[in-house]
Amino acid sequence: MAHWFAYCFGEALASLWRQKVSVILSVLTIGAALLVLGGFLLVTVNLERAVSRWSAAAEFSVYLSDDISPEQRVALNMLLGSHPAVASREYVSKADAALRFRRDFPDLAAGLADMPQNPLPASIEVRLNPARADGATLEAFAKQLMQTAGVADVRFDRRWLERLGQLASIVRWAGWILGAVLLVASVLTVATVVRLALHARRDEVDIMQLMGAPIGLLRGPLVVEGILQGGAGSLVALVALYAGFVLVRGRILSVLGPAFEQAAVGFLPAGLSALLVLVGMAVGCAGGYLAARHVR
Amino acid sequence: MYGRGIYALRDVSLVVEKGEFVFLTGPSGAGKSTLLRLLLRQELPTEGTVRVAGRDLAKLTPSQAQSYRRAVGFVFQDFKLIPSKTVLDNVGLVPRVLGATSVQQQRRTFQVLKWLGLQHRMSAYPLELSGGEQQRVAIARALVNEPALILADEPTGNLDPDLSLEIMNLLRDINARGTTVLVATHNRELMRHVGRRSITLDHGHLVETA
Q1: How many structural domains does chain B have?
Q2: Regions in chain B scoring below 70 on pLDDT
Q3: What's the pLDDT tens digit per position in A189-228?
Q4: Would the N or C end of chain B have less CB density within 10 A of its end CB?
Q5: Closest chain B residue to A209 measured between Cα atoms?
Q6: pLDDT of A166 strictly over 80
Q7: Do the Cβ atoms of B81 and A209 come within 8 Å?
Q8: Which residues of B touch A203 (CB under 8 A)?
Q9: CATH number of the domain that B176 lies in?
Q10: B67 contact residues in A (CB cutoff 8 A)
């Protein structure tokens, strides 16, 4: 078996070297297809990362009526404390709310001071447990809180995160569909290049057949040739993707500012990068096999 | 039979005994090469049967056909050597890739190359060799698996008279060791020199056995 593999690799490398120009074009085609796919994956992964981070930090703000009674406050605290989606909660008094307002909006602070009394309500900021806080549960919990005595309003910033999550999903599917179309084109390109190689080696293959070489020995080098082209194409795509990522990352951070933290924007994880290489090799393998089927 | 009702061979019935040396002769287009192609199982007969060692070649599975070809030596006028492979690879490539790396196999390859006077040309490529050397490499390749049958299609067609005689003597020596040899040739002088049974074909018909 080792001889078999060594032979297939040796022949494939020699063939790739013989037709360098068409091989380079084929590798670039695969690289372009995987770059598109990888680009979509990169955007999706970062959107999902952001959604995940923001989800972890997501919270309810439960605004209290000014006339909430101590009993109503105890009942509200008990309700919040017993819900599995609640990770922690913090009471923000009217005075604390005014302090925060003056700190966050110093230009408007004077207006607040002119008012006869502090208009900002007291609130309870509820930090959520992302593992237990699915959309339907939170929706129901928000409604329940709204109907609780002593509660003036509930601000729930989960909905736009869900929309962002859906957007990430759409981007990912768009990437897979566009990537799949380009990958099919890549399979055909590899098949054409490998068929050209087969054509150049036709006499050799005929002689090998006369020598009684098994079909696997004749097809093997062609399939390996495809796999090597696919692997090279995927590495080209990964390098180009990383270079593009490094170039664009700074700009994205400066445009989106504090919404995206430096650490939150990252390159494809190792598993996805390996998957991209495997996809490239599979594309090459399919192209090589399509060409090799002509050897009978 | 080829398309449009043209017969390459018709009503040909012949038996070659084990260990025989037989010439196939006749004018161009007589069907000599077709007969050899049938024996190499490069083509299958549209009618009738071709049997080698009792086996109907048309009934072989693809893997049996590959095994059969590995057991038959072939020599062609245009040598059919792989230009990108060395002499050693041309002779021993398929057995080696198939895992026959035993000392015996290697020894056999060296023995055959030495017997044919090619031991000093093992690393050379076919295009670096003379026509006679290339044909000897082709014969070495045919011999390396110790075949029971060697098929040679105009093996001296590209060689000068001295080299032709040398190659024919080689084939005769191979036959003397027990291998059945079937040689298609136009060269009547060589046939006379070797002096074995000859079968003459003309327009696809067997016309004479002498």
Answers
A1: 1
A2: 1-4, 94-102
A3: 899 989 988 888 888 888 888 888 888 888 999 999 999 9
A4: C
A5: B66
A6: yes
A7: no
A8: 80, 82
A9: 3.40.50.300
A10: 212
Q: With an 8 Å Cβ cutoff, is A208 touching chain B?
A: yes
Q: What is the pLDDT of residues A65-75, one digit of tens each?
A: 988 888 988 89
| B80/A207 touch (CB, cutoff 8 Å), yes or no | yes
What distance in Å separates the CA atoms of residue A288 and residue A189, rounded to the nearest whole number? 10
- Tokens for B181, please give them: 């040899």
In order of start, what are the domains of chain A with their CATH numbers?
2-53+162-292 (no CATH), 59-156 (3.30.70.3040)
Distances (CA, A) of A225 to A59, B47, B157: 55, 41, 37
CA distance to partner chain B, nearest, from residue A14 (Å): 10
Size of interface A-B (CB pairs under 8 A): 51
Question: Is A17 an interface residue toward B (CB < 8 Å)?
Answer: no
pLDDT of residue A116: 82
Mean pLDDT score, A110-136: 81
Residue A3 sits at the chain B interface (C-beta within 8 Å): yes
